[in-house]
Design brief:
Blueprint (H helix, E strand, L loop, with lengths): L4 E3 L2 H6 L7 H19 L8 H25 L2 E2 L4 E2 L16 H17 L1 H7 L14 H15 L3 H14 L4 H13 L3 H14 L4 H13 L3 H14 L4 H13 L3 H17 L5 H17 L3 H10 L2 E3 L1
């Protein structure tokens, strides 16, 4: 029996969000999110799947969710309507059931805040350094330049990073991770053709490389070559059919093509997989789904929107 997930559309929540500027709530959320971010900073990404990383990140967030729930109740903040609770009696019963609607309200809010404010979370959730046969290099000099490139990439010094990765590849041209990160550097510098070339070279060395397949699709999308991007995601699906990024990417590109129904269908599939994987990227899928809803409603296709959600076992309220 399939689970039913519920999307609360941002369109409705935005209209009722004036009281979210509550200073006490914001300060508590900020402090606890910083604690969660420090926890995520300690996660080692090497040789872990994205699902494994999502579970570890989820634990870091969960450690703060209980404290956030208690803090809100002590301050009389009711997350059901995001405003001060006028009742004099404060309910200090803390719900620790991770599957309960009450717990999820606190968890989801701190998760969304961290997704926007914690760079480490984005880094963890996009990590892909699972070592394969041709991933690494046995040449110490090539590795030295590669590590220097990683340092520059971490500092957002993309031009310097590209230079170091190129130096590494001059020494060892079959160093797949160096090609991958050269591609990332090029993409950050808006050199999408250079990025695509680097990812293709990596795939020649390792046709099963998840990271270059995923990133070449992103590069095609930036070039507005949406069909090529969708084709790349479809190839990725052949290797990793349960990767939510596949459906998220296809959904985005179908939306860019104004094919809202296919975009929505894929985004719903991504949303369900994010839920299953306990991934904070769930909130990104929610935002896209809400945007699609607004567009389909304008086109008089609100009923079709609801039908596609139902087809994907998602209810709307």
């Amino acid at each position: 029996m399939k689970k039913t997930f519920i999307i609360i559309l941002f369109i409705a929540s935005i209209q009722n969000s004036k009281s979210q500027n509550n200073n006490s709530d914001h300060q508590l959320l900020k402090e606890l999110s910083e604690n969660g971010c420090k926890c995520i900073d300690t996660i080692v990404t090497a040789n872990k799947t994205q699902k494994e990383l999502a579970i570890e990140a989820n634990k870091c967030i969960g450690q703060q969710a209980g404290a956030y729930q208690m803090g809100c109740k002590l301050m009389g903040i009711d997350l059901s309507n995001d405003k001060k609770n006028k009742k004099k009696k404060i309910d200090l019963v803390i719900n620790t059931n991770v599957n309960s609607d009450e717990y999820k309200k606190y968890f989801n809010k701190i998760e969304r805040y961290m997704l926007d404010s914690c760079k480490s979370m984005r880094r963890i959730m996009s990590a892909s350094d699972f070592v394969r046969e041709k991933s690494a290099s046995s040449n110490l000099t090539a590795l030295q330049y590669y590590n220097l490139g990683l340092d520059e990439l971490q500092k957002n010094k993309y031009s310097n990073a590209r230079t170091y990765f190129e130096m590494s590849l001059r020494i060892d041209s079959v160093f797949a991770f160096a090609w991958d990160n050269l591609g990332i550097s090029c993409r950050k510098l808006n050199d999408y053709d250079g990025a695509i070339y680097a990812y293709k070279r990596s795939l020649e060395l390792d046709p099963l490389g998840i990271m270059p397949l995923q990133n070449i699709a992103v590069a095609y999308s930036f070039k507005k070559e949406y069909d090529n991007a969708i084709n790349a995601y479809q190839k990725l699906a052949e290797l990793d059919k349960n990767n939510p990024e596949v459906f998220y990417g296809m959904g985005e590109n179908y939306v860019y093509k104004d094919d809202l129904e296919k975009g929505l269908d894929n985004m719903c599939k991504a949303y369900n997989l994010y839920i299953e994987n306990k991934s904070p990227y769930r909130s990104d899928a929610e935002k896209i789904i809400s945007n699609i809803y607004a567009k389909m409603k304008e086109q008089g296709k609100e009923q079709r929107f609801i039908e596609i959600l139902k087809e994907n076992n998602i209810s709307m309220k």
